[in-house]
Structures are given as C-alpha cells and as structure tokens.
Amino acid sequence: MKRVALASDHGGFGLKTEIKNYLTSKGYEILDLGTDSEVSVDYPDFGAAAAKAVLDKKADCAIIMCGSGIGISISANKFKGIRCALCFDTYTAKMCRLHNDANIMALGGRITTIERAADMVDLFLNTEFEGGRHQRRIDKIDELAKDSWC
C-alpha cells in the first residue's frame, strides 16, 4: 500500500480533509503535512514540504492543494526530481501518471468537488507510468533541471 503525503494551504484545507478521510477509508497510510485549518498561510511552504517528503522517500507520492492548485504546484515544481501535475479532470489525472510519471498531483480546493477529486485520486494512485518513448521525454526534463539557472 502506498504512503501518500497530503499538504494544503487554507484554500485547499477542506478538500484535503475530505481526501484524507477518503484515502484512510481505503487503507492508505497518510502523511499529513498541514495546514490544519482555514487560517491564512502561504502555499509555498506546503508545496515545499510535500516535495521534500517525496524526495526524502517519506512518502511514495503526494497530493497537494491550494485554492486553484496553481501556486502550490509551481512551488513543488521548483524541486529537482519533482514532477507535479495540476489536474482538473480524470483525463489529466490519468495522463500525468501514464505519460509524465508525475509524483505529485495538485488540485484546486475551491474548484474541485470531492466526488471529482476521489476519481482523480484513484487514477493518480493506480495508474502506472507507461515508460517507452515517454521515458525519453522525462529524461529530457531532468536534463533541463541540470542547466537551470534558478
């Protein structure tokens, strides 16, 4: 069974709580990295915490949320070795694993229902990376990170 890190800012807190309950009911081990309320916090802190948990192998993957999913996904993607995909439907949730080997999925807490999120989470956690021609593209992404100036 996978160990899944969850993290959100205040805008994603409600959805994070519902996803945590959903995954716990399915037997997943959860690493909850916060936040713990709807009190305003800064999403980069939580995107970074999730990225570090995946890179340090404290979690197999992560699901992160802010109001739109945009800011927290940008934050997580600042870490070499992280491929965080902002997903908004089942197609993007499946493809981010199948073709992009994403290790973090970002969701918009203010724009995603728990019903849609549950379907996306299931696809993210149960879709295997296809490899093949897609591995070549992942390798190119990794090469870009070596030359990055940021």
Radius of gyration: 14 Å
Please state the average pLDDT score: 95
Strand proportion, as a percent range, falls in 15-25%
How do the helices and strands follow one another from N- to C-terminus?
A: EHEHEHEHEHH
The level of helicity is 40-55%
Low-confidence stretches: none
Helix-strand layout with pairing:
Layout: E1 3-8, H1 13-25, E2 29-32, H2 43-55, E3 61-66, H3 70-76, E4 84-86, H4 90-98, E5 104-108, H5 114-126, H6 133-147
Parallel strand pairs: 1-2, 1-3, 3-5, 4-5
Could you explain how this protein is built, in words?
This protein is an alpha/beta fold. Helix content is 47%, strand content 16%. The chain has six helices and five strands; from the N terminus they run βαβαβαβαβαα. A five-stranded parallel beta sheet has the order 2-1-3-5-4, sandwiched between helices. α1 links the parallel β1 (3-8) and β2 (29-32). α1 packs across α5, α2 crosses α3 and α4 (90-98) runs parallel beside α5. The longest helix has 15 residues, at 133-147. The chain is globular.
